[in-house]
TrEMBL record:
This is Glycoside hydrolase subgroup catalytic core protein. Residues 1-19 form the signal peptide. Keywords: Signal.
Length: 562
């Protein structure tokens, strides 16, 4: 009797839980958050948090091929080896080591290692790195390997000089048979930039910064090739057609080949149908203007299945490993690990202009677990763009991952009840250059056609960022952030390549600066070479860039000789 009672009681509880579950799964959500007036408040979960730090620093040894893929026409390749002291990842590390034949311990300051291709037991590199250093480069002759479609499993075995402390780590190396016809696109895992090769580059890899727009298919590209030509003539380096497409897709892609206008091929809406993904990849993979694949559009915002991006990624890779795969994340922090797993580079689309960041069109407030104000956990400020890029970089650190490049999708539209107005030309320049300062490796705005003012403003910036001399800096290194004392609303970064530095200055204030500006540089500079963007009359004295005033929302690029 008692048993039966318990069983019935348990059954009722299970039914109750099921009813509760179906009730909560039917609630409309965005980024997992209920957002409609009257919906219960339910923490969506899926937030990534900072890992618990280890009481003692760990030695985190990592290895990554410099390039995401190599092809058989290349003979030289490079590994990047990190031996970082980390609070989160790695193996225990004791800073002393015993030298053979000596009774006094010495500092464990160098890690001795070998890098092997496991399956063939072939040593590719034997060398050492200083402890607490990253981005150590080791060239090797990749032509000693046989080109193949499967990756080589690479293992690094490292140890202290006494052999007492050992460390190992693994990665995959792609050495693919050369590809003809069409393009090949790589990611440089050191600087995060793209490199591509096709008939228009004479089949040599060239560094590339994609700057362009998500572009309407039915409303722009499809009706006439003249529209694509007009877009191309504005000086954009890339284009992202928005599906769904029609039968004359190949006519338009053929024309992109002719123009050498690199495109990102979008499979939103179909990327969870792997049969469709296969068909599309087979149709498009040999275009010489194919830059990259794009699968999910805001999978986190839509709460797509958590494995969907990875399944599409694997499907694409089985057919075409010659182009990287990207996607855009919409939420600030919702199942980042799962959704980002299915991509080689990550895009963000925080749209802060003209939003009400605290009260939504759905009649609710917006906070970390509730509501949809159009820009997840945003403040409605220009810095929402750079904050989102910083977040994505931080999550990758928390996961202990090799950083995937981040691209920005800045706002160039208004409407939908969330966005009151378009950005101004100055705001568009600020958002783009902020993205650059925080490490964005390409810019694809939403969306084209846009108002003439923004089509022109972005065209001007594209012509500068995607070409020499700026291109060599933004693809030749990572930006270093510079905080300017007494001018906290200046966002400044610099890149050093060879004997020159590019300094990028953004004024986040909507008002002119009233006093003279001084930017103290952390490196010696001898002269100003040029100012490829903006009209700020900088003067250089000693290690300081000086100017009497700065306009509201000013953007400036200046190249210095070291
Ligand atoms: C290294 O290992 C040997 C044998 O395990 C041990 O005797 C020695 O004390 C160790 N040296 C140090 C510095 O830990
Ligand atoms: C090794 O660690 C000890 C204890 O933390 C510290 O006192 C010493 O300075 C360190 N030595 C080196 C060479 O880093
Ligand atoms: C490791 O490097 C960082 C950054 O260069 C430095 O601040 C830190 O003191 C170093 N740690 C050790 C134990 O040498
Ligand atoms: C590259 O090949 C494509 C496709 O065959 C062709 O349309 C294009 O004109 C070629 N470009 C150059 C620069 O040869
Ligand atoms: C293209 O590459 C070939 C082979 O490397 C070279 O002989 C030729 O001069 C190059 N042409 C151009 C236009 O760069
Ligand atoms: C696409 O097809 C439509 C209908 O056949 C035609 O009007 C249009 O010109 C085509 N577009 C292009 C770019 O060929
Ligand atoms: C998946 O794509 C294939 C190929 O395009 C199509 O035939 C099929 O109807 C699609 N399935 C679904 C469920 O949409
Ligand atoms: C992907 O996840 C869904 C649940 O969201 C599950 O039904 C499906 O079996 C998974 N597919 C694979 C191949 O793991
Ligand atoms: C957001 O909307 C609320 C409610 O209508 C209003 O009180 C508030 O002033 C608005 N904030 C902004 C920045 O527009
Ligand atoms: C968000 O707002 C909801 C609805 O007012 C409230 O129940 C919830 O506690 C808030 N969450 C946070 C994290 O403040």
């Amino acid at each position: 009797m008692l048993v039966a009672t318990i069983t019935v009681f348990a059954l009722l509880r299970v039914q109750g839980a099921l009813a509760q579950a179906s009730k909560t799964t039917n609630i409309p959500r965005w980024c997992g958050k209920p957002y409609k007036s009257g919906s219960p408040n339910i923490n969506p979960g899926g937030q990534l948090t900072q890992p618990q730090p280890s009481p003692n620093p760990l030695l985190y040894v990592q290895i990554e091929p410099r390039h995401s893929i190599y092809v058989s026409s290349e003979e030289s390749a490079t590994f990047i080896v990190d031996a970082a002291l980390s609070d989160y990842y790695g193996s225990p590390y004791s800073n002393s080591t015993q030298v053979l034949g000596s009774s006094t311990p010495e500092p464990f300051s160098d890690l001795y290692f070998s890098i092997l291709a496991e399956s063939i037991d072939q040593v590719l590199v034997t060398n050492s790195v200083r402890i607490n250093t990253t981005n150590n480069l080791f060239d090797f002759n990749i032509a000693q390997l046989t080109p193949q479609f499967d990756p080589y499993d690479i293992v690094l075995y490292g140890a202290s000089s006494d052999g007492n402390q050992t460390y190992s780590t693994a990665t995959k190396l792609f050495y693919l048979p050369d590809k003809q016809p069409g393009s090949i696109t790589k990611i440089d895992n050191l600087n995060g930039n793209l490199l591509y090769r096709n008939n228009a580059t004479n089949n040599t890899f060239v560094p590339f910064f994609a700057f362009g727009f998500y572009t309407s298919w039915g409303g722009y590209l499809e009706p006439s090739l003249e529209n694509l030509k007009a877009y191309y003539d504005l000086g954009y380096s890339a284009v992202h057609p928005i599906p769904s497409f029609s039968d004359n897709l190949t006519t338009v892609l053929d024309y992109m080949d002719e123009l050498n206008l690199m495109f990102q091929y979008d499979m939103r809406g179909t990327y969870t149908n792997l049969t469709s993904v296969k068909e599309q990849v087979n149709l498009v993979k040999d275009y010489s203007s194919l830059l990259a694949w794009y699968t999910a559009d805001e999978p986190d915002g839509n709460q797509d299945p958590l494995n969907a991006t990875t399944l599409a990624y694997e499907t694409i890779g089985q057919i075409d490993k010659y182009h990287p795969v990207g996607l855009v994340l919409n939420c600030q922090n919702y199942h980042f690990e799962e959704y980002s797993a299915g991509a080689d580079y990550l895009m963000e689309d925080a749209y802060p202009i003209g939003i009400n960041a605290t009260w939504s069109k759905w009649g609710t407030l917006c906070n970390a677990t509730y509501g949809d104000c159009g820009c997840d956990n945003c403040l409605g400020e220009l810095q929402d763009v750079s904050n989102r890029i910083d977040d994505i970089a931080e999550y990758q650190e928390w996961l202990g991952q090799w950083s995937k490049p981040i691209w920005a999708v800045p706002q160039s539209f208004y409407g939908e009840g969330y966005w009151d107005r378009n950005p101004t030309a100055e705001e568009t320049w600020v958002m783009n250059q902020l993205a650059l300062n925080h490490g964005a490796k390409s810019i694809m705005l939403w969306a084209f056609p846009t108002v003439d003012e923004l089509a022109t403003a972005n065209s001007q910036q594209s012509k500068v960022l995607t070409k020499s001399p700026v291109l060599e800096f933004v693809t030749g290194g990572q930006p270093t952030r510079l905080s300017v004392k007494a001018f906290e609303s200046l966002d400044v970064s610099y890149w050093i390549v060879g004997q020159q530095a590019l300094v990028s200055i953004v004024n986040l204030e909507y008002a002119d600066a009233s006093s003279a500006i001084k930017i103290v540089l952390p490196f010696p500079a001898s002269s100003i070479v040029s100012s490829p963007w903006g009209n700020v009359p900088w003067e250089l004295s000693e290690k300081t860039l000086n100017v009497q005033t700065l306009d509201a929302l000013v953007t400036s690029l200046v190249i210095l000789h070291l």
